[in-house]
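Continuing the batch. This is chain 6 of the set; chains 1 through 5 are on the previous pages. Same settings as before, nothing changed between runs. Recording input and output for traceability.
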Amino acid sequence: MTLDGVGTDQIATQLSSDMVLVPMAYWASKGLSRGGKAVPEGCTAWCRSTVIKILTLQEYCGDLINFKTYSKSYKNKKRLNNDPENMVVFRGVNEPIIDRATWEKVQEKRGKIRKRKPHSGDRNMFSGLVVCADCGRNLNFHFNQGNHDIQYFNCSNYNSGHGTCNATHYIRVDFLEQVVLGEIRRLTKFASHYESEFVKAVMGHSQQAAIAERQYKEKELNRLLARDKELDRLFERLYEDNVAGKLSDERYARMARSY
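Output for chain 6:
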């Protein structure tokens, strides 16, 4: 379905309509206990995140992947996602349920297509700027399949009823352009009639933007300094594990390069 151009939301909707059990419910029906959030017995309410995870699982090609997660120390039980270069992949260990060529095509397709684009291949100039008034999520850009001249935005948190927003917040692009153009004309008229007041307003906004940027950079600097200290502690632990024989020289060198 992905190779045919069907989106993950539409796939989730189709699986729900076909009454296909979600993974947790399927395992439970087979008497298998798996970690994770429990779901009602016989649950068929699929969500987009589950479909995305299924599409990315390399194990379906028959591969065995070790060291997908790690912990910072034996005292910290929290598991963290490992970098791909630190994983160990054994190809073709198990019987595949999907051929590798198809899986790789899906990865390539999903990696290149981030957002739905219009027939012309161009993003709309308002993409990423329009947000939902209720939930604050971005409004996604779409176009009518039958008539590509009809372009519109709607709430990304509503999508096919899987989100938490109760309304679509549909708005046509041509109407949005009229509203913005009207605001630009109003601002231009104000600037021409009250030039000094306009200059003061612009300068005040620039100063506020400069203050906000400085605060952001200070916050980012503090975050990076904290990360620098954390890396020092990680190197010490790596070295101690290597000296104690808990970590091979090769793995120590690979992890040190990664950090």
